[in-house]
Please model this.
Amino acid sequence: MSSSDNLIAQNILGQIPASRGILWEKIENFKNKISVIEGALTHKPGDEQSEGLKKTAPLKHHFEGGLYTREIFMPKGAVIVSLIHKQEHPSFLLKGELSYLTDDGEIVRVKAPHTVFTKKKEHKECFIYTKMLSGVAFIKQMQQMFWMQS
Model:
């Protein structure tokens, strides 16, 4: 990828402070700035995906053998601020390329295939360089998972 792509990710993700234990208020402020941009799509926990999100970033849920996994497709050029995660889990970048902000304030650029382990109460801020496919696996019994989310 070009250095201009790296500069775009640095400019967007770099607006969040680069200190250990990122300040939640700054991330909330960043989300608020993004949400007023024309064409921005938002999602609240527990709500069904809007038609705009279903079209732009389709999400597929899979339930089998007492396990839950999901896939999400994200478009090139998207800026993603994830929800706060309620449990630890692996996430798999199956296709594409993105940059994400670590809790240390470092911007990391990765290409598929790539695995990252998300911690409880953590969330990710990402810039998507190419169309991408990501998968998440919850390796807990479904009953336990739904109980933990309520």
User: Anything to note?
Assistant: Residues 49 and 55 are 10 Å apart (CA to CA). The mean pLDDT is 75. The helical segments are 3-13, 24-35, 51-56, 142-149.
